[in-house]
C-alpha cells in the first residue's frame, strides 16, 4: 500500500505552494467577480458601519459543483491533499507569517486606519501587539474586506482536507466507512448551517472588535484547516465499520450540538437586527433593551460556545474511542473558547456596566451549568 503521507521535499513544497496560492487566488478573484449578499455590518468602535458582500454560500455551492464535475467527469481525486499534508502545512505557516507582515506594513500606510483596542490591555510592546493582534480592524484590498474573506480559504480549506480523507480511504481500502461518511457529512452540515445564515458572522466578536493580524491570519490559514481536520488520520485506516446504533447515536448527539450552536447564534443575530424579534415564538425579553435574555441567552451566557464544542466532539468521536489524539480537537477548542469567553466577558462588563452585572445574575453560567 502506498504511504499515506509523502515526505517533505523541495519539489513537494513547490507543488504545495502552487496548491495553496492557486486555491486562495481563485477564491480572491471569485470574491471580486461573483455575486453575494450585500449586508450592512454593526457599528464599529468609531460608531461607523461597514457594508459587506457575503459570498460564502456561493463559494460553497460552486465548490460542490466543481467537485462533482472533477470527480465524476474527469476522475480527479482529492487524495493528493492528504498525501501532501505536511508540505501544505509548512507552506501555510510561511504564508501566514508573510501575510501578517504585509498586513502590519499595510496598516502603517498614511491615511486613516481604524484600529480596535478592545481586549488588548496586555503589557506587551506596541509593535508586538500590532503584529500579533493586527494594527487595523478592517483592512480592505480592491474592495474586499480581508478579514471576512479569509474565512473562505479557512473553512473551505478544512472541508477540502476532510473530503480528501474520504478519497484517500477509497483509494486505500476500496470503500468508505460509515464513520468516514459521518465525518464528511457532519462537516457538510456544519458548514451549510454556517453559510445558510452567514449574516450572523457580522455580529461576532472577530468582526466587530478584533484587528486583523497574525493571531487571526494564522488561525485561518493553519490552526483551523490543519487541526480541525485531524481526526481524519484516525478514521482513514479504521476498516471495522461503525454499527448502525453507533452512527445513529453519534448523529443524534451531533444534531443536538449543532442546533444549540446555530440557534443561539441566530437568536442573537435576529435580536441585533430587530430588538422586537420573536425568540421561541415570544417577543424578545431584554435587559435595558440591549442584552437578550430570551432563548438560549437567558439560560447561559455562552451556550453557542457549548454547542460548538459539542460539534467538534462529534468530529472526534467519528474516530472511535481507541485513540486519544482526535480528542485534542475538542479539547483545544474548549481551551480557546473558555479563554475567549473570559475576554468577551471583560469586554462586555466594560461596555454594558450594571446591565452586564444584572445579566450575569440572570444567566448565571457561561458554558457549563455550575462549572463555568
Ligand atoms: P458571540 O457570538 O457570543 O459574540 C459575543 C458578543 O455578543 C459580545 O461581545 C456582545 O457584543 C454580544 N453579546 C453577548 N451576550 C449578549 C446578549 N445576551 N445579548 C446581546 N448581545 C450579546 O461570540 P463569538 O463572536 O466569539 O463567536 C461566534 C460563533 O463563532 C460561536 O458559535 C463560536 O463558538 C464560534 N467560534 C468558533 C471558533 C472556531 O474556531 N470554531 C472560534 C471562535 C468562535 P456587543 O458588544 O456587540 O453587544
Please specify the SSE layout and strand pairing.
Blueprint: H1 10-33, E1 37-40, E2 51-54, H2 56-74, H3 79-83, H4 85-107, H5 126-133, E3 140-141, E4 144-145, H6 146-149, H7 151-173, H8 178-196, H9 205-209, H10 214-228, H11 232-235, H12 244-273, E5 278-279, E6 282-283, E7 286-287, E8 291-292, H13 303-317, H14 328-352, H15 354-362
Antiparallel strand pairs: 1-2, 3-4, 5-6, 7-8
Bound molecules: NADPH dihydro-nicotinamide-adenine-dinucleotide phosphate.
Structural class: mainly alpha
- Shape label: globular
Would you report the number of β strands? 8
- Describe the main β-sheet briefly: 2 strands, antiparallel
What percentage of residues falls in helices of 4 or more residues?
55-70%
Distance between the termini: 47 Å
Percent of residues in β-strands: 5-15%
Averaged pLDDT, please?
92
The total of helices stands at 15
What is the strand arrangement across the widest sheet?
1-2
SSE succession = HEEHHHHEEHHHHHHHEEEEHHH
Oligomer: single chain
- Each distinct ligand: NADPH dihydro-nicotinamide-adenine-dinucleotide phosphate
- Rg computed from alpha carbons, rounded to a whole number of angstroms: 21 Å
Q: Outline the low-pLDDT stretches.
A: none
Provide a descriptive summary of the structure in words.
By secondary structure, the protein is mainly α. Helices cover 61% and strands 5% of the residues. It has a two-stranded antiparallel sheet with strand order 1-2. A hairpin with a 3-residue loop joins strand 7 and strand 8. The longest helix has 30 residues. The model has no long low-confidence stretch (mean pLDDT 92). Bound molecules: NADPH dihydro-nicotinamide-adenine-dinucleotide phosphate (NDP). NADPH dihydro-nicotinamide-adenine-dinucleotide phosphate binds next to helix 9, helix 12, strand 8, helix 13 and helix 14. The site of NADPH dihydro-nicotinamide-adenine-dinucleotide phosphate (NDP) has 21 residues, from helix 9, helix 12, strand 8, helix 13 and helix 14.
Amino acid at each position: 500500500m502506498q504511504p499515506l503521507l509523502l515526505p517533505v521535499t523541495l519539489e513537494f513544497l513547490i507543488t504545495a505552494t502552487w496548491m495553496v496560492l492557486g486555491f486562495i487566488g481563485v477564491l480572491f478573484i471569485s470574491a471580486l467577480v461573483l455575486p453575494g449578499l450585500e449586508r450592512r455590518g454593526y457599528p464599529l468602535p468609531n460608531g461607523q458601519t461597514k457594508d459587506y458582500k457575503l459570498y460564502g454560500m456561493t463559494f460553497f455551492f460552486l465548490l460542490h459543483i466543481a467537485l462533482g464535475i472533477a470527480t465524476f467527469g474527469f476522475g480527479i481525486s482529492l487524495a493528493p491533499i492528504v498525501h501532501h499534508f505536511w508540505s501544505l502545512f509548512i507552506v501555510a505557516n510561511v504564508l501566514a507569517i508573510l501575510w501578517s507582515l504585509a498586513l502590519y506594513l499595510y496598516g502603517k500606510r498614511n491615511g486613516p486606519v481604524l484600529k480596535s483596542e478592545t481586549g488588548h490591555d496586555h503589557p506587551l510592546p506596541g509593535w508586538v501587539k500590532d503584529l500579533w493582534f493586527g494594527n487595523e480592524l478592517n483592512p480592505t484590498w480592491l474592495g474586499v474586506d480581508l478579514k471576512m474573506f479569509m474565512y473562505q480559504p479557512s473553512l473551505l480549506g478544512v472541508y477540502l482536507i476532510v473530503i480528501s480523507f474520504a478519497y484517500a480511504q477509497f483509494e486505500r481500502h476500496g470503500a468508505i466507512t460509515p464513520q468516514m461518511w459521518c465525518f464528511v457529512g457532519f462537516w457538510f452540515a456544519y458548514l451549510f448551517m454556517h453559510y445558510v445564515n452567514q449574516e450572523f458572522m457580522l455580529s461576532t466578536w472577530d468582526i466587530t472588535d478584533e484587528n486583523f493580524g497574525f493571531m487571526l491570519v494564522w488561525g485561518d490559514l493553519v490552526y483551523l484547516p490543519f487541526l480541525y481536520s485531524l481526526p481524519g488520520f484516525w478514521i482513514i485506516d479504521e476498516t471495522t465499520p461503525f454499527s448502525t446504533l453507533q452512527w445513529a447515536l453519534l448523529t443524534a448527539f451531533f444534531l443536538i450540538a449543532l442546533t444549540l450552536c446555530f440557534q443561539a447564534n441566530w437568536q442573537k443575530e435576529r435580536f441585533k437586527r430587530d430588538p422586537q424579534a420573536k425568540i421561541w415564538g415570544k417577543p424578545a425579553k431584554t435587559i435595558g433593551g440591549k442584552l437578550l435574555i430570551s432563548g438560549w441567552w437567558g439560560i447561559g451566557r455562552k451556550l453557542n460556545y457549548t454547542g460548538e464544542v459539542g460539534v467538534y466532539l462529534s468530529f472526534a468521536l467519528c474516530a472511535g474511542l481507541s485513540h486519544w489524539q482526535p480528542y485534542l480537537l475538542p479539547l483545544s477548542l474548549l481551551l480557546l473558547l473558555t479563554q475567549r469567553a473570559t475576554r468577551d466577558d471583560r469586554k462586555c462588563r466594560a461596555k454594558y456596566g450594571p446591565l452586564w452585572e444584572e445579566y450575569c445574575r440572570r444567566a448565571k453560567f457561561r458554558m457549563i451549568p455550575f462549572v463555568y
